[in-house]
């Protein structure tokens, strides 16, 4: 078997998802790419958007 194992790929993807969330994005979904690269590389799509920042509520009207 060439390249990384499924467990390594899963771990790497989890690290990417955590990093994206850490810099202020909300991860909406992850999907495997059905097309493999020319050397058998496996890829995934990550759908994310900038997390909404909530403003503190003020007691002053």
Shape: elongated
- Unreliable stretches (pLDDT < 50, length at least 5) are none
Query: H/E order of the elements?
Result: HEE
Cα end-to-end separation? 65 Å
Percent helix, as a range, is 25-40%
By secondary-structure content and strand pairing, the structural class works out as alpha+beta
Strand content: 15-25%
Mean pLDDT: 82
Number of strands: 2
Q: Numbering strands along the chain, what is their spatial order in the largest sheet? A: 1-2
What is the CA-based Rg, rounded? 17 Å
Total DSSP helices: 1
Topology, element by element:
Elements: H1 6-22, E1 25-32, E2 44-50
Antiparallel strand pairs: 1-2
How does this model look, in words?
The protein is α+β, with helices and mostly antiparallel strands and 61 residues long. The protein contains one helix and two strands. Strands 1-2 form a two-stranded antiparallel sheet. The protein is elongated and about 60 Å long. The chain starts with 5 loop residues before the first helix and ends in an 11-residue tail after the last strand.
């Amino acid at each position: 078997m060439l390249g990384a194992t499924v467990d390594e790929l899963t771990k790497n993807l989890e690290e990417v998802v955590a990093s994206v969330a850490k810099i202020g994005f909300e991860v909406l979904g992850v999907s495997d790419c059905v097309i493999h690269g020319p050397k058998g590389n496996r890829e995934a799509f990550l759908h994310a958007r900038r997390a909404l920042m909530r403003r503190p509520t003020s007691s002053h009207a």
